[in-house]
Amino acid sequence: MLQPRLDLARGHLCGAEALLRWSDPVLGEIGPEEFIPLAETAGLIRAVDMQVVELLGAMLARWRRHGGGPPVSFNLSARSLHGEQFARILLDRFAAAGILPGEAVIELTETGLVDTVEPIRRNLAALRAAGFATAIDDFGTGYSSLSHLQHLPFSELKIDRSFTARLGQGDRAADSIVGAILAMAGALGMRTVAEGVETAVQRDWLAAAGCVEGQGLFFAPPLEVAAFEARWL
After folding, report:
1. Which domain holds residue 15?
2. Coil, helix or strand for 186?
3. How does strand 72-75 pair with strand 104-109?
């Protein structure tokens, strides 16, 4: 599924996030918060990551044939990035799938970086050197946020929805925290994206505070690829 990312100041489409879902005929809809940890425990997460890359490559190639589309962000498991040669493997897979720099943004959740080790930094640096943007997702939910920003080469910062939900309601603490995050990201030259935007008040607050992009139900729910293409391309 795809959820659009919109420019908060101008309202135009500037990206999308690919969201992995699992629909089982017996168990029904299973969210990633359930099946991703199972895949990591079973040692299958790299295979899942590579399957996502192949699906993304096919979709982007189709868009390219019909005039192009926005860059698409997708989440990688931090466990995959522990592998010493993972960046080379991923870049080879990008090349095979026809994915070009500027077409994809690689996201990692902050909570997955609690046990950050040197291979993750080197892999992210190699991906950035190849021209691919990297984003830290769900920012503010981990335990060493400032350390991650200082030591890991991220180009985007995504503010967790738990902060967005409290904006514009007279919650001075939430307003101050998000304002500080935006100021810090700006000083570091990082593009900012707010997740979970559900109201015009939240959108307006974020735009006034200098947040660049937003995604959430205020703009559109996650959509099947065909529905996204029909509405946004």
Report:
1. 2-232
2. helix
3. parallel
pLDDT over 70, % of the chain: 94
* Domain count within the chain: 1
Provide Rg for the chain, Cα atoms. Answer: 17
**For the domain that residue 124 is a member of, what is the CATH number?**
3.20.20.450
CA distances from 38 to 26, 32, 33, 35, 78 (A): 18, 10, 9, 5, 14
pLDDT digits (tens, 9 = 90+) for 159-173: 999 999 999 888 999
- From the candidates 40, 195, 198, 229, give the one annotated as an active-site residue: 195
pTM: 0.91
Rounded Cα distance, 119 and 90, in Å: 14
The answer to whether 200 touches 148, Cβ cutoff 8 Å, is: no
Is residue 229 among the annotated active site residues? no
Q: State the first-to-last Cα distance of the chain, in angstroms, to the nearest integer.
A: 15
pLDDT score of 62 more than 60:
yes
